[in-house]
Specification:
This protein has 169 residues and is of the alpha+beta class. It has a single domain, classed as Alpha-Beta Complex (endopeptidase fold (from Nostoc punctiforme)), CATH 3.90.1720.10. 34% of the residues lie in helices and 23% in strands. It is built from 6 helices and 8 strands, in the order H-H-H-E-E-H-H-E-E-E-E-E-H-E. It has helices at residues 5-19, 35-42, 50-61, 78-90, 98-101, 156-161; strands spanning 71-72, 75-76, 106-108, 118-124, 127-133, 138-143, 147-152, 162-167. A 6-stranded antiparallel sheet has the order 3-8-4-5-6-7. A two-stranded antiparallel sheet has the order 1-2. Strand 6 and strand 7 (147-152) form a beta hairpin. Helix 2 packs across helix 3 (50-61).
Length: 169
């Protein structure tokens, strides 16, 4: 059976859409992070520790729109956001895709999660999502619906799609 160029192109586009970094709805107002509390943390002039650097990184990228395959302030996807953070903050190179990032570092039990660990989600058939665990059950990530934001792990959507936590040293 021969495939036309159009059929091949449709197949390639379908594969990209099925493997794209995806984010779910942020509709639960009771499951949101206290942004005023985070903004207070962000007002520090000079980072005193690594965790402060991660908050400053968030402040720089906050509300950057989502763009599949993006890697700039004009648009970023979840794995690009994580890759850039590792390069700028930790001077480490990690893979570009969420799938490959999900094999970096060491798996961590949910109860042992710490600030800066990577949290992974299975958000659809063959679709993964990644972000940085912060504290108080929150994580920062590039959401496909709202850009770079902070969400709660215990919101219904993220709790249902949670997959694993990994620590990269």
């Amino acid at each position: 059976m021969k495939h036309s160029a159009t059929q091949t192109l449709i197949t390639i586009v379908a594969v990209f859409l099925l493997t794209a970094c995806a984010s779910g709805p942020e509709n639960n107002p009771t499951a949101r992070v206290n942004i005023k509390q985070i903004d207070t943390q962000l007002e520090k002039d000079v980072p005193q520790k690594e965790s402060d650097a991660l908050f400053h990184f968030y402040k720089t990228w906050h509300k950057t729109p989502y763009r599949y395959g993006g890697n700039s302030r004009k648009g970023i996807d979840c794995s690009g956001f994580v890759k850039i953070a590792f390069a700028q903050l930790f001077h480490q190179s990690i893979p570009r895709t969420t799938h490959l990032q999900s094999h970096v570092g060491t798996p961590i039990d949910y109860e042992d999660r710490q600030y800066g660990d990577l949290v992974f989600f299975k958000t659809g058939f063959n679709t993964l999502h990644v972000g940085f665990y912060l504290e108080d059950n929150s994580f920062m990530h590039a959401s496909s619906s709202k850009g770079v934001i902070i969400s709660r792990l215990d919101s219904p959507y993220w709790a249902d799609t949670f997959w694993q936590i990994r620590r990269v040293n």
